[in-house]
Amino acid sequence: MVAADKHKEIEKEETASGKGGAGIKIESGTTPVRQRTLQDKYKALIYIQKALTEEIFVRLMNCTSTKQAWEIIKNEYGGTEQTKISTIVNLRTKFETLRMGKDETIRAYADRIIAIVNKLKLYGDDEFTERKIVMNIITTLPQRFEMNILALEGGGKNMLNLTLAELLYSLHASKQRAKNKLQLDTEGAMYAKLHEALHGNFVLCAESVANQSQ
Fold first, then answer.
1. What SS3 state is found at 37?
2. CB-CB neighbours of 95 under 10 Å
3. Is 119 exposed, middle or buried (0-12, 13-18, 19+ CB in 10 A)?
4. Where does this protein have compositionally biased stretches of type Basic and acidic residues (predicted)?
5. Phi and psi, residue 141, nearest 5°
6. pLDDT: is 16 or 131 the higher one?
7. Domain ranges in the chain?
8. Is the distance from CB of 174 to CB of 144 less than 8 angstroms?
9. Cα dist. 153→148, 159, 177 in Å?
10. Is the pTM value of this prediction over 0.85?
11. Burial code of 27-42, b = ≥16 C-beta within 10 A, e = fewer?
12. Confidence tier at 22 by pLDDT (50, 70, 90)
């Protein structure tokens, strides 16, 4: 089962367990207190799995207990203090030097940045606020987004208070408007050429009829 399908399954199980459904198998004869404990542990595991990025999630998707999941996370992101510092430095460098791909969408680029920030948080680095993520995206966008950024600034948007969701929506809407305008301009030019061609044929036809009548 792929990670995306497993995520959907977890969401269904969370709903079931939240309603007292069959999110977890409980043997007959289990006391109510024990049932409640098992259900709480199962919910905790679900919440841990839902909070992870897909890259990390695939390592935990087969865990059956919070202890098992936590051990994997601890082994993956633990280590000595020096190792953690070295990893944080590498991730920070990756964050600062990350650039958008030629054919990459703004959504995919933002997801890559967020994935790095989530890893940093797992290592205890919480300095990367939403504002810092937004400013990183704005300052590293390729030149083809320059007019979109200028449109945001000209539209009265306060770039320092812009949320990530607002930035992504605004850039997408701006790109869509530009795409629609280009399509209209292209269609307008095509209709103009068609009109010119039809008008030219009409003139030639009229001249031909006039010559024949002489």
1. helix
2. 20
3. buried
4. 1-16
5. -65, 145
6. 131
7. 3-77, 81-179
8. no
9. 9, 7, 16
10. no
11. eeeeeeeeeeebbeeb
12. very low
Tell me if 47 sits within 8 A of 61, measured CB to CB. Answer: no
Which pLDDT tens digit goes with each residue over 108-156? 898 899 889 988 888 888 888 888 999 999 889 888 888 888 877 776 6
DSSP 61: T
Q: Is 81-179 a domain of CATH 1.10.1200?
A: yes
Q: What 3-state DSSP class applies to 128?
A: coil
176 vs 196: CA distance, rounded Å: 30
Tokens of 199: 């008008």
Is it the case that residue 197 has pLDDT exceeding 50?
yes
- Closest by alpha carbon to 130, among 171, 164, 166? 164
Q: Tokens representing 124?
A: 């205890």
